[in-house]
Amino acid sequence: MGYWLISLLIFNFALLISACGLDVEDPTPPSPPVWVQKSLPEEWPEHGIDAHESGRIYFEWEPNPEDNISAYLIYRAEYFEVTDSMGDYELLEHIQTESLVDMEYIDTHSAIRAKYYYRLQAVDRADNLSAFSDSLMYSLLPQLYLGEMTPNGTSDELNPDRYLTWRYIHSIEMEDYCLTILSAENELIVRKILIPRSYLGVVETWRIPENIIFEPNQIYKWRIDASANYVDQFETAGSESQWATFFYTVD
């Protein structure tokens, strides 16, 4: 008799909760976030952790498989070369998913030559916290300045010899360049890895091959990335210039 009474009470309590629209919160934490795989230097479009043309560090991650994620927490720690020591991970940003269009972030507080480690956590609507993601490391090199790139300007014509010219005064810190040319509609024209002629900050040039066809009377943009400290074919230090432009006209 006592057993049936207890069962009846539990059943009635469950009905009451259901009638009131109350949900019992699931204590299961969400899965840890997963980073987007970093693209190889010559690949376009770029993915994963990377330098950004704003002069900061950019990274992206996959959406969690759970549909009840309310926020992501971004943590950062700095490695100090002089003392060969790692600082503590500190909360860099608490981002509500409703404010995210894409799972990406630009660390606007990143500094040149600092070695940063990043990791993530996911939070669901019941405030369950996931385990940490894997850690990713990246370091910024100084940007190549627009003033050191020629041609640069919407009325600045590409010279008949089709040369692009630039000078990177911090070249001793990098290993190679990656040159990218896009159309005004952001269509890829060419992306090329280039070995510096010298690591002494001299003027560098690259002649655009004749088999690369440009539409006449159109504006194109180009950028120079500097990369260093490769691990398994992926750079762990780099920078991206802002976009320079040139006008192509028929000779």
List the helices and strands and how they pair.
Elements: H1 2-19, E1 50-51, E2 57-60, E3 69-80, E4 85-86, E5 90-96, E6 104-107, E7 115-124, E8 136-140, E9 149-150, E10 163-167, E11 176-183, E12 188-194, E13 203-207, E14 218-231, E15 234-240, E16 244-248
Parallel strand pairs: 8-15
Antiparallel strand pairs: 1-2, 2-6, 3-4, 3-5, 3-7, 7-8, 9-10, 10-13, 11-12, 11-14, 14-15, 14-16
Molecular structure report:
The chain is mainly beta. The chain has two domains: 50-140, Immunoglobulins (Immunoglobulin-like, Sandwich); 146-248, Sandwich (Immunoglobulin-like), CATH 2.60.40.10. Helices cover 7% and strands 39% of the residues. It has one helix at 2-19; strands at residues 50-51, 57-60, 69-80, 85-86, 90-96, 104-107, 115-124, 136-140, 149-150, 163-167, 176-183, 188-194, 203-207, 218-231, 234-240, 244-248. The strands form three sheets. Strands 3, 4, 5, 7, 8, 11, 12, 14, 15 and 16 form a ten-stranded mixed β-sheet that branches. A three-stranded antiparallel β-sheet has the order 1-2-6, with no helix packed on it. Strand 11 and strand 12 (188-194) form a beta hairpin. The protein is globular, with a radius of gyration of 26 Å. The termini are far apart.
